[in-house]
Fold this sequence. Notes:
Helix content: over 70%
Subcellular location: Membrane
Family: Belongs to the UPF0382 family.
Pfam family, one: DUF423
Strand content: under 5%
Protein name: DUF423 domain-containing protein
Membrane topology: Multi-pass membrane protein
Shape: elongated
Largest sheet: none
Order of helices and strands: HHHH
Amino acid sequence: MLRQFLMLAAFFGFTGVGLGAFAAHGLKDRLSSDYLAVFHTGVNYQLIHALALLALAVLSVQVPGRLVNAAGVMFCIGIVLFSGSLYALTLSGVRLFGVITPFGGLAFLVGWACLGMAAWNLGKA
């Protein structure tokens, strides 16, 4: 999973920086301060989890297994659902997209739980 997680980390990191710059320069005069803050929340979570994917790429070589892989998959799903729904909400104004956001948050939580379980299992022989 090293290559896949590295590529996903690079993609989400690249697009996160690009979307952050877009918000700071292209949206600051078009969105309300509340919507701009929501957009930035999406960017922050995307970038944090892009870094988490980078760490998982390295970890997947040292500690291969289903839990590490599941954590990476859950982080990707979380980025798409959580950050993606916040981007869609702010850019479209359709508040229904906000219903999707908690599912992305749940995916992040499941990913972190999988990582925690993988760490717990390291001590077992």
